[in-house]
Design a protein that fits this description.
The structure holds 2 protein chains of 2 kinds. Chain A is an alpha/beta fold. Chain A has helices at about 10-25, 40-50, 70-85, 90-100, 115-125, 190-200, 265-275, 280, 290-300, and strands at about 30-35, 60-65, 85-90, 130, 150, 180-185, 210-220, 220-225, 240-245, 255-260. Chain B has 3 domains: about 1-215, 3-Layer(aba) Sandwich (Rossmann fold), CATH 3.40.50.300; about 220-305, Beta Barrel (Elongation Factor Tu (Ef-tu), domain 3); about 310-410, Translation factors (Elongation Factor Tu (Ef-tu), domain 3), CATH 2.40.30.10. Classes of the chains: A alpha/beta, B alpha+beta. The structure holds guanosine-5'-triphosphate (GTP) and magnesium ion.
Chain lengths: ~300, ~425
């Protein structure tokens, strides 16, 4: 075999590092959107590698819905300390109060949609011109259409029918004042690629990604953690199950899966064996309409 | 395991999206919940009860109109390879989106409807494939079910397309008769076409050799970002971060910094903070040099005995991608990897007819999806290679200063 050969994870990593460096070089105030999930943790790893031994060049921005897993918050705070990076937290709760937004009601009232307001306010407050996000094209059909440098207007809106051509790996990050670019360095990674990379790099993850016991209720076949943020009805049966999470998001709309996987190897094996997609298994909010994601992105979502 | 990036092209309704859906479906890359949603949406159901094209047509407008508007990327793996697929639109109007997908592909599958044979759009996409120098071409003759799986029709189309191959001087062309809708010759050899002795599509895609497509003989490196920690411990650290575009770099290599035209030596190579003896394309590295030279983003490092061109006046092919026509005499930004310089289009020599390859005089303005030969003048010397020789350093884009849009793909010569 050719001596100068990169396997698929090394190729994806090289591409991700290249994109990180383009962001640092092309923008004045870039930020990395950090949720505490495995995708944003992968972004942090790529950025660390891109600028080593220099200091981490982006602030981590957490748009906090208030419905967090404690384990993810602890992980976040530790990581920030270790990186010596700046952490910016903006709370959806504050946007709701200040902007007199109406909170969705219902059993799993999610603040996912309301996050957009907080995100756009944060972008404006700090005058961020680029926000790096961990979205992957394999997650969802609308995402599969998005460029790596996705230009958004002053309202954060995505215009899917008028995207800039994106040729070779030449990224045009030029924008007008008030606009911003969402950058997705792991666009070409699948869920399994992310897990394999985390395993290869031996990156620590929040403990909720591994099997643990937790009180849950079953809702349309999905397991939702019992918390102060969801409404428990009389008909709900609270069960204590051994579960892990495939994604970390808002507690109200992220479902757990039953699992005994305690190590990265075991998690990877389960992901390989699963017949259900990440979104299908874990997102309670996306089932509403076929175009839910397209609509949210047009409205400023990442 | 490596990666194969490929694009599907061809005219409207040739079955590109269906083919990708079929590849995903038959390689078991579609998960149960995705299938259920698909079954619910499908109106034009096939024998499996689903409309395979819906797997990639992700925009509301696309589903409503039953066409593809912009590239969709899909992913799947077999034990041999990871595949990144770009599903391109077939409509002429969306050719620029097709070019976006094609520019990052190692291989192109050109679909031909067996009933229609080689048509204008087949030719157009083949010309784009040849302009962009896509290294491998699969001509998939689709809808063989509509022509009774006949060998004669297949051979007829094959000999027609061979004329295109000769005219464009295409290399590595493989023909496969398929019926995407029914899965013939996609994953398994079709029993309906026993006369075909080639590989089914997926097996071909798994085996086609692409590792050698990366150039490891002409070292090219461009600075993306300068790392200067300026901390107490790393006070004098100054590393040049970038991607090795082509070739191999070793510690101790004698190099030349361009366009400064200064010689120096590589003293250290790092990858993610770890020192290595050598590095190669397409690794993301940090290079250190022996001398104190003023170097910034966009500057190029090459071996002293393997030099690129350094010029201000450059002949180029432009694929125009903007709704606003090209304005000769206007200034644009030229982005060449990480280098950004002003450029002016001095002269348009001729238009390339993307159906016949003929050169025609430019009487009118140059509009969306047209290809022209032009002469650029850059405000500072550009360090580059002819696209024919090295595509990584031979390609660039033009950006409209006022709209910030990417208005053209530039092939340097
Ligand atoms: N009979 C037959 N029909 C096919 C075959 N493959 C695709 N089709 C049909 O051809 C039509 C167009 O298919 P699409 O996959 O949407 O075509 P496309 O090339 O992606 O079209 P655009 O993206 O809009 O350019 C659909 O009705 C398919 O069901 C085939 O092998 N046999
Ligand atoms: Mg299509």
């Amino acid at each position: 075999m050719n001596k100068y050969y990169l396997n698929y994870l090394e190729q994806l990593e090289a591409e991700g590092i290249y994109i990180m460096r383009e962001v640092a070089a092309q923008f004045e105030k870039p930020a990395l959107l950090f949720s505490g999930g495995k995708d944003s943790i992968t972004l942090v790893q790529l950025a660390k590698k891109a600028f080593a031994p220099g200091k981490f060049p982006f602030p981590l921005v957490h748009i906090d819905t208030g419905h967090n897993f404690k384990e993810a918050l602890d992980y976040r705070d530790n990581l920030v300390k270790e990186l010596g990076a700046e952490l910016i937290v903006r709370k959806v709760e504050d946007s709701i109060r200040e902007r007199k937004l109406t909170e969705p009601k219902g059993k799993f009232a999610s603040r996912n949609w309301l996050q957009i307001h907080t995100l756009l306010d944060t972008i404006e407050e700090f005058k961020f011109d680029a926000c790096i996000g961990g979205a992957r094209r394999d997650e969802e059909k609308a995402r599969a259409k998005e460029r790596i440098f996705s230009v958004r207007d002053a309202f954060g809106q995505w215009e899917p029918k008028l995207q800039r051509p994106e040729l070779w790996n030449i990224y045009n990050g030029r924008i007008h004042k008030g606009e911003n670019v969402r950058v997705f360095p792991i666009s070409n990674w699948t869920e399994l690629d992310v897990w394999n990379y985390i395993r290869k790099e031996n990156i620590p993850l929040p403990s909720i990604y591994f099997a643990h016991y937790r009180d849950v209720i079953a809702h349309e076949g999905q397991l939702v953690a019992v918390s102060d943020y969801i409404q428990i009805d009389e008909t709900d049966v609270i069960m204590n199950k051994r579960v892990r999470y495939r994604t970390v998001g808002d507690m109200t709309c992220t479902a757990a899966v039953e699992s005994n996987a305690e190590t990265l190897d075991e998690v990877v094996n389960e992901i390989i064996a699963t017949r259900i997609s990440e979104r299908g298994e874990t997102r309670i909010d996306d089932k509403v309409t076929e175009a839910a994601m397209e609509d949210r992105k047009k409205g400023g979502y990442f | 395991m490596d990666i194969l990036r490929f694009i599907t092209a061809g005219s409207v309704d040739d079955g590109k999206s269906t083919l990708i859906g079929r590849l995903l479906f038959d390689s078991k890359s579609i998960l149960q919940d995705q299938l259920e949603t698909l079954e619910k949406q499908s109106k034009n159901k096939n024998a499996d009860g689903i409309d395979l094209a819906l797997l990639t047509d992700g925009l509301r407008a696309e589903r409503e109109q039953g066409i593809t508007i912009d590239v969709a990327y899909r992913y799947f793996s077999t034990p041999k390879r990871k595949f990144i697929i770009a599903d391109a639109p077939g409509h002429v109007q969306y050719t620029r989106n097709m070019i976006t997908g094609a520019s990052n592909s190692n291989l192109i599958i050109i679909l031909i409807d067996a009933r229609l044979g080689v048509i204008e759009q087949t030719r157009r996409h083949s010309i784009i494939a040849s302009l962009l120098r896509i290294k491998h071409i699969v001509v998939a003759i689709n809808k063989m079910d509509m022509v009774d799986y006949g060998q004669e029709r297949f051979n007829e189309i094959k000999s027609d397309y061979n004329k295109v191959v000769a005219q464009l001087n295409l290399q590595n062309v493989t023909y496969i008769p398929i019926a995407a809708l029914h899965g013939d010759n996609i994953v398994e050899k079709s029993e309906k076409m026993p006369w075909f002795d080639g590989l089914p599509l997926l097996q071909f895609l798994e085996e086609v050799e692409v590792a050698d497509d990366i150039n490891h003989t002409d070292p090219r490196f461009q600075v993306q970002y300068v790392i200067r920690p300026q901390t107490k411990e790393l006070h004098d650290y100054r590393g040049y971060a970038g991607e090795i575009i082509n070739g191999v770099y070793k510690k101790g290599d004698k190099i030349k910094i361009l366009p400064q035209d200064i010689e120096t030596t590589i003293t250290k190579i790092e990858i993610a903070g770890v020192e290595v003896e050598e590095a190669f394309a397409p690794q993301a590295v940090v290079l250190h040099i022996a001398d104190d030279i003023d170097i910034s983003r966009g500057d190029t490092f090459v071996h002293i005995d393997n030099l690129p061109k350094v010029e201000n006046n450059i002949d180029v092919l432009l694929c125009w991608m903007d709704n606003k026509p090209l304005q000769p005499g206007n200034k644009y930004f030229l982005q060449h990897k990480s280098r950004l310089i002003r450029a002016i289009i001095q002269e348009i020599e001729y238009k390339v007819d993307v159906n016949t390859l003929e050169h025609t005089a430019v009487t009118d303005s140059v509009k969306l999806n047209e290809v022209v030969k032009a002469r650029l003048r850059t405000a500072a010397p550009l360090v580059y290679d002819p696209f024919e020789k090295l595509d990584g350093t031979g390609s660039a884009i033009l950006i409209d200063e006022t709209s910030n849009s990417t208005v053209a793909a530039v092939l340097l010569s």
